[in-house]
Amino acid sequence: MRFLLNLLLIIVIIGVVGGMIKRIQDNRRAQELAAQQPASDPEKPAQFTDEQWDIIKQANSVPDDVTPLPTLSGSPSKILKGRALYQYICYLPHGYSDEENKARSYPLIVFLHGQDLKGDDLDRLYQRSPIQDLQMREDPNFILAAPLCPANGGWVSTALDEFLEHIIARFNVDQDRLYLTGISMGGHGAWSWAQDFPKRFAAIAPLCGAGNPQKAKLRLKRLPIWIFHGGNDAVVPVERALSMIHALEPVNANLRYSIFPEQGHNIGGVYQRPELYVWFLTHSKDPKKSLLYQDPESVAAATETISNRP
User: Which of helix, strand or coil describes residue 253?
Assistant: First the structure.
């Protein structure tokens, strides 16, 4: 009897020791496998994929501070550069002050550039953005922020929306009057961002861009949209704009469009037209902030000049 008890005890001890050895081996194997895998980035927000976060981190190659850029001669407006996920430049109108204007908030235009400006050259972005058009007119109404897309990336809606949150937190922005525009690849990005975040903007104006007609028909029924496209566009065929128009026209009463029959892909002259900016200001999530409510006569005077030419 005692022999059987001793035998049973030996078997139990062997089982316990064997289990401990197996757990040690499993832990060691797990550690070896973990060492072979690239370490995850603890700072990566959950909404971004690893690929998106790599693109965003590549853009973070300038200091966090906001630095003045050279401005047009004699211009009292401010042009700043900084980083908020993307590198960016920002136009602040004459009279803007972080401290003095805390009680005043400004409408914000976000501009998305095209394929040819991808990289790290903020000076080229400044020269090719609508900022100079705003400066020439000393437009007092808007802040304009233009992110810079990394060389190996594209516009990612989730990253852009995070960028916008940074801009809103940094500057005196009126969240009832957020406007979005973009040209070419930036037009694609504008469509995509608006379709993914349909309640974010008060109005959008895509130039020579392509969107998803089915998605737009479902998600952009109320958003004011002004589509611009060249009839002879050989890069993004005008049919891409027409497909968006055909999808949205039956469901969106706030849709308007300008097709320039003789123009090609380069329709950036649209940004030199003051009526686009007047049109932006007629739209606000708070109707009492709309220019139609505040100054209907100026709206009527500006919109009389609108025609199908850039």
Answer: coil
**Rounded CA gap, 163 and 83, in Å?**
9
Is residue 300's pLDDT more than 70? no
For residues 276 and 206, give the distance between their C-alpha atoms in angstroms, rounded to a whole number: 12
235: which residues sit within 8 A by CB, 6+ positions away?
Answer: 184, 208, 264, 265
Q: What are phi and psi of 148, to 5 degrees?
A: -110, 120
**Other C-beta atoms lying within 10 Å of the C-beta of residue 38:** 6
For residues 43 and 61, give the distance between their C-alpha atoms in angstroms, rounded to a whole number. Answer: 16
- Rounded to 10 degrees, the C-alpha dihedral 309/214/156/34 comes to -170
**Whether 299 contacts 292, CB under 8 Å:** yes
Backbone angles phi, psi at 108, to 5 degrees: -120, 130
pTM: 0.76
Which structural domains are found in the chain, ordered by start? Answer: 66-303 (3.40.50.1820)
Structure tokens that stand for 25 in this block:
């081996």
Nearest residue to 91 via CA among 227, 268, 271, 269: 271
- The top-scoring range by mean pLDDT among 21-25, 83-87, 209-213 is 209-213
What distance in Å separates the CA atoms of residue 174 and residue 63, rounded to the nearest whole number?
26
> Using CA atoms, how far apart are residues 29 and 211, in angstroms rounded to an integer?
48
* Listed ranges 31-40, 174-183, 279-288; the one with the highest mean pLDDT: 174-183
φ/ψ of 40, rounded to 5, equals: -75, 150
Backbone φ, ψ for residue 48 (5° rounding): -105, 140
Rounded to an integer, what distance in angstroms lies between the CA atom of residue 308 and that of residue 36?
60
Which two three-digit tokens encode residue 302?
Answer: 């500006």
Residues contacting 7, CB < 8 A, separation 6+: none
Mean pLDDT across the chain, nearest whole number?
Answer: 80
